[in-house]
Design goal:
Length: 86
């Protein structure tokens, strides 16, 4: 399972050529990769998904979790700083 923002979600890109699918196709072992990317999500939001959503799916038992995020956290903090300065 791969968590990330819009660079993982890739909403406007053909599902056959998104980077998570290319990653899956190039693994040496036969793993199914679940793209759990959500555009605009911060690390807090991704963490919250475990209790809010993932726990509801008993069949969801990822062997590995890859986290590819950070830019949305930075934007969130910059927006908060700018609002305090106004």
């Amino acid at each position: 399972m791969i968590l990330g923002g819009s660079t993982t979600e890739e909403r406007e890109v053909d599902d056959n050529i998104i980077w998570t699918k290319i990653f899956e196709n190039n693994l040496k072992e036969d793993f199914k990769v679940l793209n759990a990317g959500i555009g605009g999500q911060t690390s807090y939001g991704h963490k919250s998904m475990f209790n809010m959503w993932f726990q509801n799916y008993s069949e969801l038992t990822p062997e590995y979790i890859i986290v590819y995020l950070g830019i949305n956290d930075e934007l969130y903090f910059v927006e908060k700083i700018n609002k305090k300065n106004i």
